[in-house]
Specification:
2 copies of one chain form a homodimer. Chain A contains 7 helices and 3 strands; from the N terminus they run H-H-E-H-H-E-E-H-H-H. Chain A is of the alpha+beta class. Chain B binds a DNA duplex through helix 3 and helix 4.
Chain lengths: 119, 119
DNA sequence: CAGTATCCCGCGTGATACTG
DNA sequence: CAGTATCACGCGGGATACTG
């Protein structure tokens, strides 16, 4: 790889798109609950400020992962959910989860006190 | 999911482990070139300072992804490479790459000027 | 040559109040 | 209720010089 190209390399871009602090949680939520009204989404994530939640949603919207649907004019009623592209993430996220499961299993046995005693 | 548990949820942890600015590049390098001496690795990444490269390596070492091997005492001669756990990442990284390829393809057609004109 | 010590800066994240 | 405006802060990342 040419290192000038690195900034645009796909894996790097992947992390740039998805590594917002709350994005994995938001995606997880959409996969399990489906589309949701903004206020509901926000209520279910008590530790995140509205501003930040909106930012994360807007970023993913700009990246084509999330879709925003405005229903009424007043009072505002906005729903967020996954785009088709967003939905296509499911297998990949499951892959990540299963890799991590293995990883954490290995780590706990590596750091197992029983093994430490053998030293 | 309980949101107290979120900080330790697997996908989130995954991003915490791998989203250092240079980690994807370092991993990519190890997959293509194998183990490498520190100075060589550093020379091939001109835009990164030694301090930061060392930090990223040490973090991944602590996370069990990277292995550090010291050969001589003086002058120091240190090699870095992938652990078995690190090597087990290959399929997942390929999955990410292929998903991203698709993603970027979709994006470019979505934003294609030809389609814009149809509006 | 590998690694550390300092100092520095910008950005992602956060709290809070405000607007339409 | 959805979204914006301010202000603030910690931390990841960076430049540079130094040490063993």
């Amino acid at each position: 790889m040419n290192y000038k190209e690195f900034e645009n390399c796909s894996v790097n871009l992947f992390f740039r798109i998805f590594s917002g602090k709350w994005k994995p949680l938001i995606l997880h939520h959409f996969f399990y609950t489906g589309d949701e009204r903004f206020i509901e989404l926000w209520r279910k994530m008590p530790k995140i400020s509205k501003k930040v939640l909106l930012e994360q949603l807007k970023e993913m919207e700009n990246d084509g992962i999330v879709v925003r649907k405005q229903v009424n004019t007043f009072p505002p009623e906005v729903y967020y959910g996954l785009s088709e592209t967003g939905k296509s993430l499911e297998q990949l996220l499951l892959h990540i989860e299963s890799w991590m499961e293995n990883y954490q299993l290995q780590r706990t046995t590596e750091l197992d006190p029983m093994k430490e005693k053998q030293k």
